[in-house]
Specification:
homodimer, alpha/beta, 15 helices, globular
Chain lengths: 376, 376
């Protein structure tokens, strides 16, 4: 994998670059739609590629490990082939889902012991096994196993947890380097900075993971309930330490505003379920603000969902029609809203990239932020 | 609306024709995907047009009347505009849904009194009001209000019900002729033959509705639980009486085999929820037979859903992937299965049309029937 920075914004730490993988080129900053269990909910692979313009998607190792399972994925020739998706895929390590989905889990030096949220069966994730799982999935970018600390989190817990994440990282890298890709294309390994909301821990973690000199680095444990300002503060501490010439991935973030602020701090990669999950519930992101399409006021608004060119479906269907579909619980409502929101996120990233190239990013961001937060 | 018969099969009563509406030309025999409440479940308008090749869809007046309601539809400029669908639409009269969905209904000489299955509110459908509703919807083909008798049905009940349907028909036609289209395009009115499984009643009804000389005629009250042979028998009795130069629409039918048998009896138009509803439950129609994709045997079958050219998605995605999606209750599973099944129905109609033109329909049908019924 190769990463090249094409432009640096003069008014902020924002960068525009290009990430080159064996499955294609990704221009950064980039948003990765979340394809939890081998599908971005409600959206076909064609729509993802052609209508939305996604260049990379994210898969969740926890979900894929449980269903369809590594045996099927291996026999399919990896996730790309299994789901008919020939562009890049990044997978998380599964740790976050163990934490959030399994109500029967234990964390030890060895790794996670947990029960499946589907059938209660017992499983173990170790720093080594999640590399094996992601080798079988065949993702272009493999994430290290970490513990994502909750918020709020005592300093002592955060410190011990970070140190455990670091020890896991060492084991993960050793295992990653001792193993090989299965399907012929190369795979990169991203470590994850932890340290909760404590500046000294975040610094220590960023320095530690930078020292491994991997092809990219991630920031985890943010957007878990802490105030936004604290998230940006931690993000800034970390991006000042992480290598300039490697992509930085802020995991699980966030709202359009969160993303623009984080781009300004030097983050290159993002993922979040928000555009699809909130879309399914009738929340639409537009360049003029947020629409709750269930609201009575849209019932006879026959204007397009979004007048701007941010998405094809936004121009094709009216607010009144989408409101009707969402209220009648028609699948197409969730589909249209998801396609629109993801298209909007893609549009936002393309705009950001253009503004970085023109050195107008900081101004544009400050003009966009109040609009993005407006409730229409 | 103009109807022209291009070919008549020498070995059966099958016909291939062309129905010309203000929203486009429909080649017959035709299958109409069911867009219950302003959307064919799980399928976008683009997919319907471009991937599936649908030339006309069906809307349910009962559902549309309750949601979004006639006021919204009227202000939208009709259903075509409301849902961004510029090809023909046929709507049923709502009688069947009152019968099947409302558990609080009463049938009188005047019409149906019923309570909404959504909020329990009280409503009345009369032969006149359902014409008004369909004028507002703006469907290209308007259906008469009828009573769809259940199966089994006593002769006396069937006779009285048929006579009521005939009286309603007279009122409906008077009202239809006294009213005008709202949106500039012309609308046709189809009466419906009833008479349950009684040959004399079916004959009487077919003669009665033929006498009104409308632009097309429908056969209702079949495929409601009676043995298939009885359905074909009634269908044959009726098609021998209905005008040759008008399209015949067999309502709510059916399996691929039902459709081929009915085409052989001279039916031109069909609709059914089966391809979408069964698709959502993992049942796939293919040219080699029926697949229950939930079956364990498909879990590591990485071959395409359907090797033939009947659908794009059938070639794009594997059986193992679709099984995974359906089992994981991912929306995309329902979407792929629905697109595939509808595409298969369209393929079957196109094939039937070609075979009629070549005078090989009867042979082809007899060769297809055992395949269509095979469980793979």
């Amino acid at each position: 994998m190769k990463f090249r920075i094409d432009h640096r914004d003069l008014g902020s730490a924002a960068r525009a670059g290009e990430l080159n993988t064996d499955h294609g080129v990704i221009q950064t900053p980039v948003f990765m739609p979340v394809g939890t269990v081998g599908s971005v909910k409600g959206i076909s692979q064609n729509e993802l590629k052609e209508q939305i313009g996604a260049k990379i998607i994210l898969g969740n190792s926890y979900h894929l490990y449980l269903r369809p399972g590594t045996e099927i994925l291996n026999r399919a020739g990896g996730l790309h082939k299994f789901m008919s998706w020939n562009l890049p895929i990044l997978t998380d390590s599964g740790g976050y889902q163990v934490f959030s989905l399994s109500n029967n889990r234990k964390i030890t030096e060895k790794g996670y012991a947990f029960r499946s949220h589907i059938d209660g069966s017992k499983h173990i994730f170790t720093p080594e096994s999640v590399v094996d799982i992601q080798r079988i999935i065949g993702s272009n970018i493999i994430m290290a196993l970490d513990e994502c600390t909750p918020y709020p989190c005592e300093y002592e817990y955060a410190k011990n947890s970070m140190e455990l994440t670091h020890r896991w990282l060492e084991r993960g890298i050793i295992h990653f380097e001792a193993s090989r890709p299965i399907y012929g294309h190369s795979q990169s390994f991203f470590p994850i900075v932890q340290g909760s909301v404590y500046t000294d821990l975040r610094k220590q973690s960023a320095e530690m993971i930078s020292s491994f000199n991997q092809e990219g680095n991630a920031i985890g444990g943010l957007s878990v309930g802490e105030p936004e300002e604290q998230m940006y503060e931690m993000c800034e501490v970390v991006t000042q330490i992480l290598p300039q010439d490697k992509p930085r991935y802020l995991m699980g973030v966030g709202t359009p505003a969160n993303i623009l602020e984080s781009i300004a701090l030097g983050v290159d990669m993002f993922d979040c379920v928000m555009p699809t999950r909130n879309g399914r519930n009738g929340m639409l992101f537009t360049s003029n603000g947020i629409i709750n399409i269930k609201n009575e006021k849209w019932k006879d608004d026959f204007s397009p969902i979004d007048e701007t060119e941010t998405s094809g479906v936004g121009k094709q269907y009216s607010k009144a029609y989408l409101r009707h579909l969402i209220n009648a619980k028609e699948m197409l409502g969730a589909q249209i809203a998801s396609i629109h929101n993801l298209s909007f996120y893609m549009w936002l990233m393309n705009e950001a990239r253009d503004k970085i190239a023109n050195n107008t990013f900081a101004d544009w961001k400050n003009k966009m932020l109040p609009k993005l937060k407006t409730r229409l």
